[in-house]
């Protein structure tokens, strides 16, 4: 999967993620000793003695323990997020995400989740936990089709959207009109972790998924 953006809007933005993630140096590979930016990373044990996660704010129905972070329980109308508290000043970066999406249902697994790299942090809203008309980047895992007609893809669906604050995310169309690119990703109720890497380097945005 390959995305491209000619914008330099990512230079000084806040990073938010609704997942477990790490910011690493360029040329990063999975499970290596690459350099981590500690103030942008989450490592076990997540909770400190003060029952908080250093450099992170837990929001909504999200729950953090020493071994995992759960965004929501397997219940309807739940929202949870984890926001990084430190601005990002790197021109080039890579994020590695490890996640699981699971529940009792065989078909319905909520609306989805997203990685947000945006100007304004902790402004919750209708777009996978973030506000609409955001400024920045969203990498979205859409687990439910809201489109009434035929789709040219199945769900779950992984896509990217760049916004300067003027674009509306259309849930009824599953954001297809404003996405940069996307691909199907089978990641629900798997017995193993799913790994996603997002890299922004020299104004090029790329994504990789491993299950």
TrEMBL record:
Localization, per the record, is:
Membrane
Pfam families given for it?
Answer: Lectin_leg-like
From its record, what is one biological process in GO terms?
endoplasmic reticulum to Golgi vesicle-mediated transport
Q: Which UniProt keywords apply?
A: Membrane, Signal, Transmembrane, Transmembrane helix
**What Gene Ontology molecular function terms does this protein carry?**
D-mannose binding
Signal peptide start and end residues: 1-25
What's the main place this protein lives? Answer: membrane
Q: Can you give the residue ranges of the L-type lectin-like domain? A: 34-211
GO cellular component: a single term: endoplasmic reticulum membrane
Gene3D superfamilies, per the entry: 2.60.120.200
Transmembrane ranges? none
- Asked if the keyword Transmembrane helix belongs to this entry, the reply reads yes
Per the record, membrane topology reads: Single-pass type I membrane protein
Q: What is this protein called?
A: VIP36-like protein isoform X2
Q: What organism, scientifically named, is this protein from?
A: Diaphorina citri (Asian citrus psyllid)
